[in-house]
C-alpha cells in the first residue's frame, strides 16, 4: 500500500476545518494550524501546531484556506511562515478565494524564494455543507505533473478536480463561478420577496420550478433557508461581497452593471450587520425596502 503524504492545513474556518476532518477520515497524517487554536480541538488525530512553520515541517502537501491574499501571504512568508518550514519538493495548494492579483504575486514570491516548492492555485467551488461531505469541486491550475502528491489529497476532500492550465487560471475560473453564484442568490432573494408580495410562499415558488430545468438543488437549499429564517453561514455575506469586488476588479472593459449593483446592495447589508450570516440573508435587507 502506498504511504499517504503528510498534509498541513493552514486555516480552520468552515472550509479548512472540513478539509482537515476529511483527510483524517481517510487516514492522512494531518497537521493543522489556526490563529484560534480552539478551532482545532475537535480534530481528533490531528497534530495541532503553534505556527504555520511548525505545521509545514515534514508535510509533503501544505493547504492554505484563508480569507484573503494579505493574510495568506503573512501565513506563508516570514520566520514563522510555512515556506520556512516546508521541506524541499513540497506542494503548496492555495485554496482560498484571494483573487487573481494576489495569486499571481504569491506565485512569484514562492518562485523567487523557494523555487524547490510546487505552487498550485486551487480555489474550490462549494460551500460548508458540500465541503463537509467532500462534494466540492476544485478548480486547479499550475504544474500538474510536478504535483503528483496532491492527487490523493484532492480526492479525499473533493468529488472532482478540474485542471485549467497555468497558475492563476483556477482563481480566474473561481471568480467566474462566484460571480454567477452571487447573481443567482440576489435573483432568488428578489423573486422570493416578489412571490411574498403576491401572497405566495417559497414552497409555492419552488413547486412552480420543481421538475423543470430551473429547479437547481442550490436554489432549493437557499429558498429553504429563507423559508425557515435560518441564515447560518454556508458562505458568509461579507465574503460574497469580497468576491464580487474581486471579480469586478479584473473585469477590465467588460460591463457588469448587475454585479456592480449587487455589490452596492450587499455592502449595505454588511453595514447593516448581516455580514457574518449566509449570503441568503440579503433577503432580509430587501425587506427593509418592501
Folded structure, characterized:
This protein has 290 residues and is an alpha/beta fold. It has 2 domains: 159 residues, Rossmann fold; 116 residues, N-(1-d-carboxylethyl)-l-norvaline Dehydrogenase, domain 2, CATH 1.10.1040.10. It contains 13 helices and 9 strands. Helix 8 packs across helix 10 and helix 8 crosses helix 11. It is globular and about 65 Å long. The N and C termini lie far apart (62 Å).
Shape: globular
CATH superfamily of the largest domain: NAD(P)-binding Rossmann-like Domain
**Over all CA atoms, what is the radius of gyration?**
20 Å
The biggest sheet, with number of strands, parallel, antiparallel or mixed sense and barrel status, is: 6 strands, parallel
- The total count of strands amounts to 9
- Helix coverage percent of residues? 40-55%
What is the CATH topology of the largest domain?
A: Rossmann fold
CATH-defined architecture of the largest domain? 3-Layer(aba) Sandwich
State which percent range the strand residues make up. Answer: 5-15%
What average pLDDT do the residues reach?
Answer: 94
